[in-house]
Design a protein that fits this description.
two-stranded antiparallel ribbon, 8% strand, alpha/beta
Length: 538
Amino acid sequence: MTKTPEDLPDDPAALKAIILAQGQENARLTVQVAAWESLVEALKTRIARLEKQKFGRSSEKIHREIDQLQLALEDLEVAMAAAGRLPKDEASSPPTSGQKTEQRRRGAPRIAASAERERVVFDPGERCPKCGGELRLIGEDVAEIVEYVKAKLKVLELARLKKSCRDCGTVVQPAAPTRPIDRGIAGAGLLAHILVSKFDDHLPLYRQAEIFARLGIDIPRSTLIDWCGAAVETVRPIAERIKRGVMTADRLHGDDTPIQVLDPSRRKRDPDLRAVKEGRIWVYVRDDRPWAGTSPPAAGYWFSPDHKEEHPHAQLKDLHGILQADAYGGFQKLYEPGLDGTPRIREAACWAHLRRDFHDVWTSTGSPLAKEALDRIGRLYDIEREITGTSAENRSAVRQARSRPEAEAFRVWCDLHLPQLPGKQDLAKAIRYALRRWSSFVLFLDDGRVAIDNNPAERALRPVSVGRKNYLFAGSDGGGENLADIMTIIETAKLNGVEPEAYLADLLGRIKDHMVNRLDELLPWNWSPLRQAEPKAA
């Protein structure tokens, strides 16, 4: 607690004791903060390294470790901020010559232009407090404060007035407005909030029920479940249209991840079995932005009760083009030539997966050969970063001139070192994997529209991976299908720069009254909000 001059004693000896104690405390804090700063730097370095390693089969584990490290880092920085000791590289410092102090603020928030604003004016009055003369306005100083307005629930009373004609007696009354859920009391905005909270913010329904109770409305979890199911069913036509749009592409990224699904029938068949089975969420992503394509980005999700190859075969039955995916064996038949000798789907292999294999060897053994492989692959990625967002023609030209020599040199390197390695070594397995699928690995060199890796699909699956930590499993196969459909809508909205809660609220409020043959107008890349005035209070 900071002492004021009035709190300090007059006795010199007592003052010396206070000064001595303060000096000792400052020394202790200095040592503590130094330790904190060292740990902060170590955590930042570790996180930065992990961010560069988010590839391949272990990417999920890496994401989890990053999340845990960021939580630890956050706690440390909060403690340092509370002590008035910010990290050295982020602490405020005096502005240099000609530099505004405002630009030196640590982590200043970026406020969207659409953010609601309220002007509060502090007026000194009309008369001078010194002489009583009349004051005139000569300017103003404006500062900003970002304030939080507590979320609230409100009840809209929809009163439909009845009127009768004085002449003929005809009774007139407006039609009842369409509700997002038939005979349900949940408004479109509330339903959108529940869906986004559960499927994007990963907040389970029982926790949402607790929050709503604090806001003054007790909504049973069972009711929230019913609302979620009905809301997903209402917007399912949009999810289906997004999926059809995804499958019209001739280049897709694909991936899958497991999800636990309740299945009590398993225990009925065998009491020793768990009443949970492992289902699958599949995702296919259309993203032409890296080569400046005009097709809007979209992500379609599918659920399957198991990992059998029949599911991707059915999902991709209409695809003619290129699929970029991992080495899942169920995809292999899709790449086989047809009767005309040409495959319906060509495979584009993922260099990120290959890089991961070499990185695992390097981190576990320190192998210089694995490090050299990483450096060679890294040079390909350096080129890709330079050409991202340019035209397909430019990407293809640069790759032919710069990437192809690097790739061919890497293949020669693989051919040279493979015979020198024991066949069962992980390094040898990584090299064989590269050589066995070489034509798929270099497909991107000949087509500027093809990516070097499958990271778009991996990013699209991360919300599912994060979410299952909270909701643990789907309640049924139907629950898995609901998850896939709502993820299709939410993630596609985000890919198109559309705020998902606002989009869903508008969609739920409009879709039942929208003409079926014009539903494409409501797709995320075509959508524009319909602003409707709320019913006025009587």
